[in-house]
Specification:
- The complex is a heterodimer of chains A (275) and B (420).
- With 275 residues, chain A is α/β, with parallel strands linked by helices.
- Chain A is built from 10 helices and 10 strands.
- In chain A, a hairpin with a 2-residue loop joins strand 1 and strand 2.
- In chain A, helix 3 runs parallel beside helix 5, helix 4 crosses helix 5 and helix 5 packs parallel to helix 6.
- Chain A is globular and about 75 Å long.
- Chain B is of the alpha+beta class.
- Chain B contains 15 helices and 12 strands.
- In chain B, strands 2-3-8-5-7-6 form a 6-stranded mixed β-barrel. A two-stranded antiparallel ribbon of chain B has the order 11-12.
- In chain B, helix 1 packs across helix 2 and helix 11 packs parallel to helix 14.
- Classes of the chains: A alpha/beta (275), B alpha+beta (420).
- The complex binds adenosine-5'-triphosphate and magnesium ion.
- The site of magnesium ion has 3 residues of chain A, from helix 1.
Chain lengths: 275, 420
């Protein structure tokens, strides 16, 4: 099988002010076409971060991410937007539908973004509403739907753009067990019939069970077993070089250092005379 | 690939309108206050602007009709020298042109020179204006400002009218013998006896303080000027045709012999005053518009903050930054458009309700006793001011919309998507 996602030695730090927080530490990942892969790991282990980087929503500090052979880290913002529009479907934990659109319009919106006519877009939306088994609810707005129904709309929206990959960040976390299971079945079904590749992050044991492959993440690294200690211990200083500090923070940092330096190097005249 | 990422205008509009409606509904109080502020601001702006315009046009009319006319033709250099040496010796050359222009409502000839008036013990410097008693009424309304006595009577060669303040200063009353002194073009000083027949009160201090009005024929004989005159005063059919009339004369008359001046150039004080009032009107517009702008900016920024997550989602699923920018800009412009239209409507209704009776400021009449002002101001809603108000608001809308819209394109996606 051809691999469609390939990451190589991926590193990512977040900066809170001038303090670095390492989130990913040397991720090497290879996802093959048609997989139903699940990312598992404790809260804060970097699942969302990894998904966001693969989905061209965020940038990384170093390493490479190839999706269909294209290095998405080298793209400009607008190129990434277009890349997402045509290649990737997103499903989020909090559904994230457009509140002013009804279910059908939410799905049709991505088709319209792709340049399809309104009629064609609504046609596609109807098709996917049928696929996720809520065709009778197309006229309802998100706040008139249950969580499970909203997540079905979200999946339909993710699929409507005809993407090759669906990235789902904890899609069942806000749902009760039974609704969650139904959703997993739906996703498995969609994975098997049209052959869409799924990469899902989840704590949910049901999701992990459904996985064709389980990827374990701990402290920003992929591990074989939960018990194994990460191969390389993360270090703030080697992982998060100061050069990577965002511009605003770096200016702030430099100013602070300057003030400190002046205080040390230049005592006031009064003090100098006294000493 | 770029062309495939297009979004129909209808979708844009739909999103913008629905977002706006939603914000109006959800944040009833805040958005309502914003909208009300805007309606109130624009309404007040409309009214103030109409008052200003009404006041200005009254002032302009008063100024033009009480003395100056729309344009004057002099011998070249007269306005600067005010000397009878610079006189029009062949007025026929100019006056024969008058019939050919329908834009000219009337014209008159005058001699203007400075002199001295004395009666009994009192005397004062004056500005002598000699004019034809009938022709003058075609051009100005100065004859309507006779508050005591009569206007110049045809055939009465020694009739004299004085400005109210001059008469007061020298202590002259109706029927008194007044001696006027002036200089002939050749330089020799001469005096002549006149009889005070009327008192003029125009409300313009520089006229009331200096004017001495005598018949044109008398002056021509007295000052040995033959057929010569100093001013030909023209009245156009409407203020807006002033420049046209000036232009017509300029085409026909040699600029070596004549100077043709529109009313604005004849009294720099009035022109400055009008310019000042215009600037003042602009300042009002600016202040109101800035207030409205800040209000809108504030509302848009708060709503942006609240929608950080939603905007993040829209961007995540493939909406380009330009599309997001356009959506938010459209939303701001729509909001301002609604507010401005309602505000302008409210303002127009206010103006309309006041245009019958006007605003009577005669209680403060003293302050309005100068500069050709009427104590009752009639607001006047001109297309000019409408364009100015709505145009400025539109620019403000775009300005107020651009920053939040630009900001929306800079929102961090990763942070937006982590908001629960
Ligand atoms: N915008 C941010 N700024 C700073 N630190 C961040 C930011 N986003 C994430 N982090 C940090 O990066 C690390 C990884 O976060 P991430 O959201 O990827 O974890 P996760 O595995 O998805 O957790 P969860 O299961 O709770 O969703 C965490 O330590 C988190 O505190
Ligand atoms: Mg997460």
């Amino acid at each position: 099988m051809t691999s469609i996602i390939k990451t190589h030695d991926l590193h990512k730090c977040y900066w809170v002010g001038t303090m670095p927080h390492p989130a990913l530490h040397g991720i090497n990942l290879d996802i093959k076409q048609g997989e139903f892969a699940v990312l598992a790991g404790r809260s804060g282990s970097g699942k969302s971060t990894l998904l966001n980087i693969i989905g061209a929503l965020e940038s990384a500090d170093s390493g490479s991410v190839e999706v269909f052979g294209q290095n998405i880290l080298e793209m400009t913002q607008d190129q990434r937007t277009r890349f997402r529009l045509h290649n990737i479907g997103f499903v989020f934990q909090a559904y994230n539908l457009i509140r002013v659109f009804n279910a059908r319009e939410n799905i049709a919106y991505v088709c319209q973004l792709q340049g399809k006519s309104k009629e064609e877009s609504l046609e596609i939306a109807n098709h996917w509403l049928r696929e996720v088994e809520i065709e009778h609810l197309g006229y309802r707005r998100p706040d008139q739907l249950s969580g499970g129904q909203q997540q079905r709309v979200a999946i339909a929206r993710a699929l409507a753009s005809d993407p090759k990959i669906i990235l789902a960040d904890e899609p069942t976390a806000n749902l009760d067990t039974q609704t969650g299971r139904n959703l997993i079945h739906l996703m498995q079904d969609l994975n098997q019939r049209p052959g869409t590749t799924f990469l899902i992050s989840s704590h949910d044991p049901d999701v992990k069970e459904a996985a064709s492959r389980l990827i374990k993440l701990a402290d920003g690294q992929i591990v074989d077993e939960w018990s194994t200690i990460p191969k390389t211990p993360t270090s703030i200083y080697s992982d998060c070089p100061v050069q990577n500090m965002p511009f605003g923070e770096r200016v702030q940092f430099k100013i602070k250092r300057l003030i400190r330096w002046r205080r040390i190097r230049k005592p006031s005249k009064k003090n100098r005379r006294r000493s | 690939m770029a062309d495939s990422a297009r979004l129909g205008l209808v979708t844009y509009l739909m999103l913008a309108v629905r977002n706006l409606m939603r914000n109006l509904m959800r944040n009833q109080r805040r958005t309502t206050i914003t909208l009300l502020t805007m309606i109130f601001g624009i309404a007040v702006l409309t009214l103030l602007s109409a008052l200003n315009d009404g006041w200005l046009s009254q002032m302009k009319t008063n100024f033009i009709l009480s003395y100056t006319g729309h344009a004057q033709i002099h011998a070249k250099g007269f306005e600067a020298s005010q000397n009878l040496r610079d006189r029009i010796t062949n007025p026929e050359e100019v006056t024969r042109l008058m019939q050919s222009y329908p834009e000219i409502l009337g014209w008159t000839q005058r001699i203007r020179t400075s002199g001295l008036a004395s009666v009994g013990g009192g005397s004062a410097g004056i500005q002598i204006m000699a004019t034809d008693s009938e022709q003058e009424t075609w051009v100005t309304s100065i004859h309507e400002h006779v508050t005591k006595g009569t206007w110049l009577r045809p055939g009465m060669s020694q009739d004299l009218l004085l400005g109210a303040t001059v008469a007061d200063t020298i202590g002259a009353s109706l029927g008194d013998r007044v001696i006027l002194m002036a200089q002939r073009p050749a330089g020799e000083m001469v005096s002549e006896v006149f009889y005070l027949r009327g008192i003029l009160e125009t409300g313009a201090p520089q006229i009331d303080r200096t004017l001495a009005l005598i018949p044109l024929n008398t002056a021509q004989v007295w000052l040995k000027m033959g057929q010569s005159i100093t001013d030909i005063v023209v009245r156009a059919d409407q203020h807006e045709n002033t420049d046209l009339v000036v232009h017509l004369f300029a085409q026909q008359l040699s600029d070596q012999t004549y100077e043709i001046m529109p009313w604005q150039e004849l009294d720099p004080m009035v022109r400055q005053w009008l310019e000042f009032s215009d600037a003042y009107g602009l300042v009002i517009i600016l202040v109101v518009v800035i207030l409205v702008l800040v209000e809108i900016l504030n509302t848009m920024l708060i709503s942006l903050h609240e929608r950080h997550k939603e905007l993040g989602v829209i961007a995540a699923i493939g909406t380009t930054r330009f599309q997001i920018f356009s959506m938010l800009l459209l939303e701001a412009v729509l909001l301002i458009f609604i507010g401005a239209s309602l505000g302008y409507l409210a303002g127009s209704l206010l103006v309309y309700s006041l245009s019958g009776s006007g605003i009577d400021l005669s209680g403060y009449a003293n302050a309005f006793q100068f500069f050709y002002m009427n104590p009752v101001i009639y607001p006047d809603l001109t297309t000019d001011s409408a364009i100015r108000i709505l145009g400025t608001t539109l620019v403000a809308a775009v300005l107020a919309g651009v920053y939040p819209a630009w900001k929306a394109t800079r929102l961090s996606l990763s942070q937006a998507l982590r908001i629960q």
